[in-house]
Amino acid sequence: MFPFLILGYSLLLAFAYGFPHQLWSFSAITVLPLWLQLLFWTALILLLFKETTRWFTRLLSLFGKAISHRQTPYLIGAGTAIFFLIVGQKHFLYGDSYQCYGLVKRFPQIGYHPRILSIAVYKLFSSISPFSLHRDLLILHALLAGLFAYLIQRLVTLLFDRSTDRAALIIVLLSGSTLLLYNHIEFYALPTIFLILTYYYFLSKDSFLFLIPALLAALFHPLLIYLLGLSLLRDEIGRRFLYPLSIFILILIVHLNLNNLGILLRDEPTYFFSSGHWLQIFNHLILASPPLLFLLRGQIKTRLAITWGAIVSLLIISLLNFTLGGGDWDLSGMILFPLALLVALSLPRSELPRIGLLSLLLFLLNSGIGLNRTWEIRSAILHLDHQGTPYLSHQFPGPIRLTYLLKAQYLETDDPYYRNWAIRLGWEAIDRFPHDDRGYLFLADLIPPGGLSESIIRLGLRNSSHSNRLVNLLTDFYKRKGIPDRLLLTIAQLRLEGGEGIIGVIANLKRILEGYNHRGPFLKDGVIFWRILDDGVVVTVSLLPRSSMVEVWGPVVSNRPIGSSFLLAHNELKTTGVAKFYLRADTVFLGATFPLSDIDHTELEYLIDCVLTNLSFYRTLLKTMKIPNSRSGR
């Protein structure tokens, strides 16, 4: 049986070369240098030889005997902590590490947050540590990884008697994504510790002491609320209520949406029934428990509490909308620990040494990328790009998200290595998603102000359908040296619709002016303007980007004291509506000025009609007073 399963794992690894984004649980091998790939394949082939099994069994026997010593569990924990201090990922690319870091940084000025307890603990640790916040959190996770390994040793010692079995199962349980989640910043580390403590106390003591860590696990992460149902397994009567309770708890999780994740069947029913969704689940399962395929033997031997937890975790994984696809492997690592425990307890004892070695190889494959920053980033790309999840496909495509996160990493660390990667992925984001303005925005932030930054923004203005932020960036970009006339005219001539700011006003004006006899746009002294010609009356509509104002105005009388005095004296006449008379040089104008941010389509049209109507009226009035009109136009 073992050779066929090795063949199955080999095929999955081989397919990962051709489909690295789809088989991301195996694709770490594709980012390693060739010599390391050959070394891994050689080790995998050696598993088929009995001599390898005998050699590794002797090592496991020595390790198993050492476990019985009092100091060994502490050495296992310390060794694991040191390992994660070395390979812990220093970037923000997995999960929502950057947001977690920001929440801890701003605590307690964050208001309520579902992970407030974890945030508070992280903040407390960082307050007593002399290092930077980012390093503090990595150190804390390494220490928690050591505690996790210590608890795994205690749990395995509780469940098994043979020293060789204990050693092999410790390796198996430490080879999944549950341990790997400790190698970067997230809020799953503490609830996972309480999850293991719950099972340890439940399986070791005939008391309800396990309810304390179960309650803490649910408080630190509400998806673990099902652990409280273990209390029903203490007697036969309680077991009768177990499955109805599990259904009730799942309904509660779905209803309250306690994890801030959508329910996939409700939000994305098409994706729920797709092959891509179930392939994602397979990747999560195999990463959480590398020897998962050994369950194909059809022999599951475990305890009811573990079986129940595994079933509930499988249902949660299937129902929740993992928006980041492979990027959510850390969350699934926490949820699927009961499944990993079920798999470990169901493995054939005769094959445990080779299964342990296989699990160790896969663990080193997925954790070893932390030794090199380039491997880390390339692996993160495989986890986030081409994932096919609705969120990454439509709302935050992989290259754009990666550019954003690498930019944040660069701004936090001032390390040019991350900046160079962000620029590289930013260009890829623009090339693949030319209508999404975020790629241009992130890239412009990374390039010093100059000709290239201007070119990127202008390229975005031509391609992006949501370019108001680009225009605002342009305004800020040229705030000190002034906006070039040629650039303003380019903006004015863009065929864009809707939005806010100057682009929204331009789009509205384009639609409004289609109903008038107009000319333009023109440009003079940094002002964009159009002229409306209506029965001899000329009204000018001007945009003043530097002051973020829009004006609608027309000349009424020039250099005529009687007309000027009369009009200015009656500046509060209601017949003018929102338009007023004002004096510029020796000319009286009728018009209005509004901030760009306070004006919309209806107001613009009203202003133009108001000025046109009243301008014609007052010119007629002045003619009856025998006061000549001024020259029209600008």
Put the structure in a nutshell.
With 634 residues, the chain is α+β, with helices and mostly antiparallel strands. It has helices spanning 2-18, 34-46, 50-67, 72-87, 97-106, 116-127, 133-159, 163-173, 177-180, 189-204, 211-220, 236-240, 242-256, 264-267, 269-272, 275-288, 304-319, 329-335, 337-346, 352-367, 373-384, 390-395, 398-413, 416-432, 437-446, 451-463, 468-477, 485-492, 501-513, 561-569, 601-624; strands at 518-524, 527-534, 537-544, 549-558, 580-584, 587-595.
Walkthrough of the structure:
- This protein is α+β, with helices and mostly antiparallel strands and 634 residues long.
- It has helices at residues 2-18, 34-46, 50-67, 72-87, 97-106, 116-127, 133-159, 163-173, 177-180, 189-204, 211-220, 236-240, 242-256, 264-267, 269-272, 275-288, 304-319, 329-335, 337-346, 352-367, 373-384, 390-395, 398-413, 416-432, 437-446, 451-463, 468-477, 485-492, 501-513, 561-569, 601-624, and strands spanning 518-524, 527-534, 537-544, 549-558, 580-584, 587-595.
- The protein has a six-stranded antiparallel β-sheet with strand order 1-2-3-4-6-5.
- The protein is elongated, with a radius of gyration of 34 Å.
- Residues 492-501 and 628-634 have low confidence and may be disordered.
